[in-house]
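Below: protein 1.
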Amino acid sequence: MIVRMAVPMILAEIVNVLYSIVDRMYIGHIADVGKLALTGLGITAPIITTVAAFASLCGTGGGPLCSIARGRKDTEEAETIMGNAFTMLILLGLLLTAFTQVFMKQILHLFGASDQTFPYARDYAQIYMCGTLFSMVSFGMNFFINAQGFAKTGMMTITIGALVNIVLDPIFIFALRLGIAGAAIATVLAQFVSALWVILFLVGKRTTLKLSFRSMRLRGRIVLGILEIGASGFVMKGTTGLVQILYNIQLKRYGGDLFLGSMTIVNSIREVLIMTFHGINSGSQPALGFNFGAKKYDRVKEGIRFSTRFACLYAVIVWAMSMAFSRQIAAVFTNDSEMIALCTKTIRIFFSCFVFKAFQLTGQNVYIALGKGKLAVFFSMLRKIIVVTPLVFLLPLIPALGAYGVFWADAVADVVCSSICYLFMYFAIYKTLLSKEPGGNNP
């Protein structure tokens, strides 16, 4: 079941990452200003991550609860969870749009914009945030399509939007000569198409659970449940945004705009490399949650084992590729020789311990899928707040590292936090599930 669900989701993640990657590829090659424009786009990354964090709050919070309710054959409860999540997405989207538009200048300077890069960051962010509602609905409600077992439909949500973005990008950026603003317009239009697709499916005839006005009326018990479980997804993405801000601040201090641009490319590569992890997780969450709700613990264990093995194999392959082809990968995003030379080194540092990330993301996924949101929140906080944040400030103080210390911070955290996260999951959850079965001493 996990394979059937995961393959479409992996493909969906591959296409989804094209939203931002294609923007960066085109922007980085704009004549004369490509390097500055690419850096400006990177400065907006925490804003984009914040939008995704709030969408994840509702999606990763409601999706597992919806799967568990379906496992208990409680359709009405599952529909109410989905409807409440939709209302929450709309309200949060409106608040985010208003806040960022009012305080855009202060936000971008806080995130590391210089006088040279601010105009590019502003032009992209102001337009992008006009599509916040579309982005949140398409991303957040897609969890409920997948939770019902419609993985191919969920894949189409992302595929349709990404294809629209790919087609429109060169038209708006180059043909209409709108530059970085054109990239933002193309992205907003693509997100609108994706959101429309999701809503039409969830109110249509094919879906198992119907999105209706009755189910959208907020209920305190359900909202609190979504917030509790979704807090893990929110913290994971929200703290990613915080870390991105810290990266920008430290890189601006120790390396300047060139290093900021390098981090934009490194983050783009990271998004590509972890997309399969997210596909595996999105595909396995409904299966793990459903079987856990149905008390079929042997299938839950089997799903955990499969996800771990697949993630580890994938991590080894992509680590080797990132080490061997770092220069060629950097050249995809820029034709600036100075930037390519720097990225060749920073890519190898940042991904030097990438293999360990398989254990972090697999462990986090198990916590979310089984409704253990507090544990997922804890291990997200452990990695990004307790470990990465101090390292981002301490490592650049070492004379031999300087700005490169910012890139080493993530690698060190991969080793330390991933090991702790997975070992706790194995002994506290996997072994506990074993004990619930007859003959529970099986490996």
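Below: protein 2.
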Amino acid sequence: MSMRGEKISEEYQRMVWVRDKDGKEYACYIDDLKGVKKKEDLTEEEKEKCLDISQVLGESW
């Protein structure tokens, strides 16, 4: 694996995918969500630290 591939793999392993109570999916760094007990409890501030997957893939994905 190239150095670039290793870095991408390291970053990917630090991430989680969370679907909120409205069905939107977010890619987040686990360190940003340490206080979250249930995905339904994801606050607006925590969502801002994550990437809204629908913004990347589109609403119809």
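The chain has a mean pLDDT of 78.
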